[in-house]
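User:
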Amino acid sequence: MSAILFGSISTLADTSELQRRSFNEAFSAHDLDWSWSRDDYVSMLGSNGGADRIAEYARSQGVEVDAAAVHATKSQIFQDLLAGSGVSARPGVVETIEAARADDVKVGFVTTTSRENIDALLAALSPALTADSFDVIVDASSVDAGKPDPAAYRHALESLGEEPGSCVAIEDNEGGVRAAAAASVTCVAFPNENTADGDFGTAAETVTQLDPTHVRGLIAA
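Assistant: Predicted structure:
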């Protein structure tokens, strides 16, 4: 057997700007005079973890905030925005998943975001993609360490009963690519609109859309 592992929400649908809007609305809700521009946000996307981003930014501004509370507000705003966003799957995603399932290739969704965010995304993408599209879904509650730590990938591999060499990961950011590499999983970088200039040197290749046949071929390469 083999598996294709999608590594983040924005490998399925490009939600990066919706995420940034959610951060800014959360800041306002917590009376923080912060507004992340697109350039600001892009500069932060080399690592994963929204709460960590908030905490680091607060330190840079010399202020104390409850980063977890702000991030919880941001997540709720994001989920509400997703419901009315009309978001759609990125090019080639649905076709790649359908082809994998038809070919008895397992499909995983390997994130370290909350299950609530995942549920909101899949509700927005339904019926094209649902939880039933995946053989395993890894979320923040599944592992103790977020990416670039490889724990999420190792958990997915164990759950699926697969070896790293029989899998390929799809990732949209630097931290995710590093996590896949650390787990010895071949990775395709599939940047979103705000990570296109990232350093994806450890990825096998960087693409702007997924081709089912090519992705499947990387597993056997």
